[in-house]
Design goal:
Order of helices and strands of chain A: EEEHEEEEHEHEEEHHHHHEHHE
Shape of chain A: globular
Strand order of the largest sheet of chain A: 3-2-1-4-8
Radius of gyration of chain A: 20 Å
Strand content of chain A: 15-25%
Largest interface: A-B, 49 and 51 residues
Number of helices of chain A: 10
Oligomer: homodimer
Largest sheet of chain A: 5 strands, mixed
Number of strands of chain A: 13
Helix content of chain A: 25-40%
Structural class of chain A: alpha/beta
Distance between the termini of chain A: 35 Å
């Protein structure tokens, strides 16, 4: 009886495989490091090799793959991935003979949105936004129980909503994108900038005195231990994301917003200023009807 | 054979009725002035009186009503309308006995979006955004052939997307909303401000020397006659709306954006800087796949 699912997270530094049951419980998982730029054929070979070692491989009903990049879901083609340095790779064609069919390939933030919709709301929410906070900021949207892809499959690019018109130059070519202020590296850079003027014993302890060891994880730890610089970085970050989310709440009146990804692990350090800012800036009814997880 | 439709535009200064055929062609129309605050029962009575005088009244299949305000579409209740000064008015209940059923009541910008979807795309677009530019800025969204209302019916409030964080105070309570920079009155105010420092013979001619006569219509006329102040007002307005629309293009990857409402009549004065800004700021594929009408 084939009742389980295979999920693959295809990222620039790591490729993860997991087999989950119909409730989303992980039955087994494995991964291998991915070097970038990565050879698609080699990645595919590694995926298949790893899959063949999995105990529950005969129980799979279908396969879902999230790729860090711009994906044509209908054709199963990775149109462009800056993280993998891939362009127009026919991933579905490469994987179809060796992995359980049907295979669905989508952008990783879209896959995260679908996961959040399925697991967090049990498919009950009518609409949901999922925001992945990591090196970059991605997003996925579920409307009326379906992933929303837009006219050409690129919908959900929340990271490239403008926060500051004519602001700092973003990798995408635009200026002032929220990603440019909230991506993991930029949070770290903001902390470093502040540490030039002020000392923080808490951060010094956590980084063994080497400022280059700062990461969002360390900034969260430091803030939770009372470090003012880190606390301020999170507060400002939350207010900035809250400003963009307030606009999105007014525009889309979503039922649920899910924050995911490494940076979201800062928890209430980020969530509190986000909620306060949305409450202050968005319509009261829209704010009241929106859960932020 | 009942094959026509009754449409009603219920606004703060005027109430318009029209009977249209199945292709959207207006067969007859009439209107009456509305004073604000307006008594709902009186408005309903006036609507019914006017409808009873219409020649094609026996040919109506169903009725659609757009109201300037926050509407509960499922219950047919006007929850709040600042323009009419209405709160929780059971409009459907009041009209049901006297107008052709079924009756659909929605926010006026949502009604405009549905009209644009029906008439401009013949129901063929998969997704569409309609933006109404007038005293205020409204919006409506069509996804997968359906009007999108969001979790509590208020989706589409494009006017209250933040353009400038911590910017000018908007009526909604937030700061820096795009409406605060692009609403008809604000465009006029910007022109007046500039006229304090510089003279414009073209505007003086068009307003008979009285600056109080300036309107978006006059600013468009003046710009088309080469007036620098007016041209600049439209350029800046287009760039501002373009900034917000570039974010929305990245977020929603819409197939079509329709600009409607009085201020949109400025035409290419507004459309040109809008398109240039979106092209500059949004993802290339998303921009290429979006038609702006």
């Amino acid at each position: 009886m084939r009742s389980n699912y295979l999920g693959i997270d295809l990222g620039g530094t790591e490729v993860k495989l997991a087999i989950v049951d119909k409730k989303g419980k992980i039955l087994e998982q494995d991964s291998f490091p991915n070097s970038c730029p990565s050879d698609p054929k080699k990645v595919v070979k590694n995926i298949i090799t790893l899959f063949k070692k999995m105990k529950n491989r005969k129980s799979i009903k279908s396969t879902g793959i999230g790729v860090a990049g711009d994906v044509d879901q209908e054709k199963g083609v990775v149109r462009f991935s800056p993280n993998l340095k891939w362009k127009n790779i026919k991933l579905l064609k490469l994987l179809k003979p060796s992995l359980p069919n049907p295979i669905i390939i989508d952008n990783d933030a879209n896959a995260a949105a679908w996961g959040a919709y399925w697991l967090e709301t049990k498919g009950r929410a009518r609409n949901l936004l999922c925001i992945t906070l990591g090196t970059g900021i991605g997003g996925g949207i579920v409307f009326n129980g379906k992933l929303y892809h837009g006219a050409s499959g690129t919908a959900g690019e929340i990271g490239h909503v403008t926060l500051v018109p004519h602001g700092l130059r973003c990798n995408c070519g635009n200026k002032g994108c929220i990603e440019r202020y909230l991506g993991a590296n930029y949070l770290v850079a903001q902390a470093k900038e502040k540490l030039k003027k002020n000392r923080s014993k808490i951060i010094e302890n956590l980084t063994n005195g080497n400022i280059e060891n700062i990461s969002p994880k360390i900034l969260a730890k430091a803030a939770n231990r009372g470090d003012k610089i880190s606390k301020n970085v999170w507060k400002v970050a939350g207010e900035r994301l809250g400003t963009v989310l307030a606009s999105i709440v007014n525009l889309l009146n979503p039922e649920i917003i899910v924050l995911a990804g490494g940076v979201s692990k800062a928890g209430s350090l980020l969530l509190k200023p986000i909620k306060e800012t949305i409450k202050k800036n968005a319509f009261a009814t829209s704010y009241r009807n929106c859960r932020i997880l």
